[in-house]
């Protein structure tokens, strides 16, 4: 169902775009610098159309798969890495990382507070069969200071005590109100951890890839390919890049100890992973422009937004405080109505597995759950904050934002 946009809304939208003109130019420069990195990786590794051929069976000698791994590693400035369509989500990729590095008796230390809800069962914060806790892995956490800054003295003091095997940081906010960490802050944490032998620094990099001109330095950077680095082209998958040692250990949980990355049929998926990486800097640019526009427009109408319209970003997530449950639902319904797929569907709150509260989700996407495409979701609890992300094109993202505001303000349905 099409949404009618009032003349007043379109006038205010144009004013917001004028306000953001310098910001958009800065984002475009970042996208170009990230494109340079990706193009250099493609050129240096001599990508050819023969690398797009898939394999079946064991997948031995799949040079397209191996080159795809190298492209991801080089584009992220890492020693090694892998990207696989069979990784079902960012949570799955993180599980591979943690299970690959941790052993019974080890300690996992999260230094950005409690991780994203879906990792609670993986770690064992919520009892779950097969969790790390069941295998004797201890879990500790250090909260951010005022939900904003890493508590470096506390982290250093804990590392001095010994016993920490994985130092874990979540770059983006999840469903928390906290600020997203910048690459510079994560690199400071990496430098802090480096003097401690045997400690692996792992970063959940979801939503942050290609937002800045560099990626964090870590033993493992982990993320989903239906978010930023898949560029809207990958139809499933995840990636892990980092040090050669950490990647090798993780690869033994991806496949089999002793085999790792030497096998695994690609079944024709390689081309879309590589093509998605090619598109990623540009597609992230579209998502960032959409996020800035959303903040500017909703602030213009009196809603609290984080980050604010002119604030620099460290990820693609934009939050809007809707004020009540009804407006949260209407925001998501407006996003859905402004989507290219399933625009006729009405989002409702539901008890989604892995979450404590009912969650409403709007995602009229070509790929199910692809948050690099325009989507919105949020737990139905005060302050009824919606989490907006993505936008394959700025034009369609703008359309979706105008639709959401129209639904919220009853300006036309």
Question: What does this 3D model show about the protein?
Answer:
With about 425 residues, the protein is an alpha/beta fold. It is about 40% helix and about 15% strand. It has helices spanning about 5-20, 20-45, 65-75, 90-100, 120-125, 150-160, 185-195, 245-255, 270-300, 325-335, 395-410, and strands at about 80-85, 105-110, 140, 165-170, 200-205, 220-225, 240, 305, 320, 360, 375-380, 385-390. Strands 1-7-6-5-4-2-3 form a 7-stranded mixed beta sheet, sandwiched between helices. A hairpin with a 5-residue loop joins strand 11 (about 375-380) and strand 12 (about 385-390). Helix 1 (about 5-20) packs across helix 9, helix 3 (about 65-75) packs parallel to helix 9 (about 270-300) and helix 9 (about 270-300) packs across helix 11 (about 395-410). The radius of gyration is 21 Å and the shape is globular. The termini are close together. The model has no long low-confidence stretch (mean pLDDT about 95).
């Amino acid at each position: 169902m099409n949404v009618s946009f009032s003349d007043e809304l379109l006038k205010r939208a144009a004013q917001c775009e004028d306000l953001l003109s310098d910001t958009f130019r800065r984002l475009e420069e970042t996208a170009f610098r990230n494109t340079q990195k990706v193009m250099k990786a493609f050129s240096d590794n001599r990508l050819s159309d023969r690398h797009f051929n898939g394999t079946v069976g064991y997948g031995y000698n799949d040079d397209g798969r191996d080159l795809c791994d190298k492209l991801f590693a080089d584009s992220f400035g890492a020693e090694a890495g892998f990207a696989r369509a069979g990784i079902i989500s960012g949570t799955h990729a993180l599980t591979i990382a943690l299970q690959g590095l941790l052993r019974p008796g080890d300690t996992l230390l999260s230094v950005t507070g409690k991780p994203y809800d879906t990792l609670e069962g993986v770690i064992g914060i919520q009892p779950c069969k097969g969790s790390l806790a069941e295998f004797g892995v201890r879990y500790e956490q250090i909260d951010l200071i005022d939900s904003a800054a890493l508590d470096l003295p506390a982290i250093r003091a804990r590392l001095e005590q010994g016993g920490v095997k994985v130092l874990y940081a979540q770059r983006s906010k999840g469903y928390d109100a906290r600020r997203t960490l910048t690459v510079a802050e994560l690199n400071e944490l990496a430098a802090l951890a480096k003097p401690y032998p045997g400690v692996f620094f792992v970063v959940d990099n979801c939503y942050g890839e290609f937002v800045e001109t560099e990626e964090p330095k870590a033993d493992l950077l982990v993320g989903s390919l239906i978010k930023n680095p898949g560029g809207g082209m990958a139809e499933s998958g995840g990636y892990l890049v980092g040090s050669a040692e950490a990647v090798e250990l993780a690869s033994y949980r991806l496949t089999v100890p002793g085999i790792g990355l030497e096998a695994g049929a690609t079944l024709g998926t390689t081309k879309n992973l590589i093509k998605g990486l090619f598109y990623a800097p540009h597609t992230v640019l579209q998502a960032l422009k959409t996020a800035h526009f959303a903040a500017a427009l909703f602030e213009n109408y009196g809603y609290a937004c984080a980050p604010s319209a002119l604030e620099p970003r460290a990820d693609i997530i934009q939050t809007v405080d809707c004020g009540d449950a009804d407006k949260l639902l209407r925001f998501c319904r407006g996003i859905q109505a402004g989507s290219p797929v399933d625009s006729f569907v009405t989002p409702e709150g539901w008890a989604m597995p892995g979450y404590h509260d009912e969650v409403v989700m709007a995602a009229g996407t070509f790929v199910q759950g692809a948050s690099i495409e325009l989507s919105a979701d949020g737990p139905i609890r005060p302050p009824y904050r919606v989490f907006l992300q993505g936008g394959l094109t700025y034009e369609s993202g703008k359309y979706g934002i105008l639709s959401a505001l129209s639904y919220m303000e009853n300006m036309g349905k």
